[in-house]
Amino acid sequence: KQEVTQIPAALSVPEGENLVLNCSFTDSAIYNLQWFRQDPGKGLTSLLLIQSSQREQTSGRLNASLDKSSGRSTLYIAASQPGDSATYLCAADSNYQLIWGAGTKLIIKP
Amino acid sequence: EAQVTQNPRYLITVTGKKLTVTCSQNMNHEYMSWYRQDPGLGLRQIYYSMNVEVTDKGDVPEGYKVSRKEKRNFPLILESPSPNQTSLYFCASSPIDRVAVHEQYFGPGTRLTVT
User: Which residues are CB-neighbours of B1 under 8 A, at least 6 positions away?
Assistant: First the structure.
């Protein structure tokens, strides 16, 4: 059964730093790996989707990588800003089901 | 505007009083799903539907019912709510085409408290 883990559970960094969020999954048979952002009291916003055949996806200051052989995905945020503060969730798409990590709560200090 | 809507956004109810949370999407998506989110556990899938009249259990279906009579609507029914169903609920939809992989679109969430 697929399990998804995100480490760390929380992260606080000064504004301007580059940072990496980690996501690991136990079953490499996935259709895709998705990263979402969740703001307090709001829904989920899709950030990046990496198909199983891809190695990475980029959107602005965000870059997500996927290594199926090692069961890992990373979300790289460049030049972090206070507006990046949110909880970041990864989800592995396995057979029409999204299996979710518990998230990393990110705080960017001005 | 393409969106997934949920109602109500907030609900406080008592044990045993039947309730329904509605979910509607305007993107003509075949696939719809319900999740619950609890602290430290991430999101867990309750039920999903591949199309009209087709529903399947997710990881935590106990205590919930769903129906898919129309393509746009996928209500979540709690026949006899209990306090352990206090949670944040999300509805999501996406196209079914697996050749062109699509992201899921999420509703704003429904915060349910059962006392």
Answer: none
Residues in chain B within 8 Å Cβ distance of A36? 106
Give me the pLDDT at residue A10, please: 95
* CB atoms B40 and A102 under 8 Å: yes
- Spell out the residues 6+ positions from residue A44 whose beta carbon is closer than 8 angstroms to its own: A36, A37, A38, A89, B90, B106
Residue A43: which of B45, B103, B109 has the nearest Cβ? B109
Structure tokens at B8: 């109500």
Q: What is the pLDDT of residues A25-66, one digit of tens each?
A: 999 899 889 999 999 877 888 899 998 899 999 999 999 999
Q: Which amino acid is at A95?
A: N
Chain A residues inside the 8 Å CB shell of B109: 42-43
A residues 50-109 closer than 8 Å to B (CB): 51, 89, 91, 93, 96-98, 100-103
Residue B97: predicted pLDDT: 65
Q: Which residue has the higher pLDDT, B10 or B94?
A: B10
* Beta carbons of B95 and B64 less than 8 angstroms apart: no
Q: Using 50, 70 and 90 to split pLDDT, how confident is the model at A96?
A: low
Please tell me the distance from the alpha carbon of residue B42 to that of residue B90, in angstroms, as a whole number.
Answer: 12
CA-to-CA distance for A56 and A66, rounded, in angstroms? 6
**B58, closest residue in chain A (CA to CA):** A97
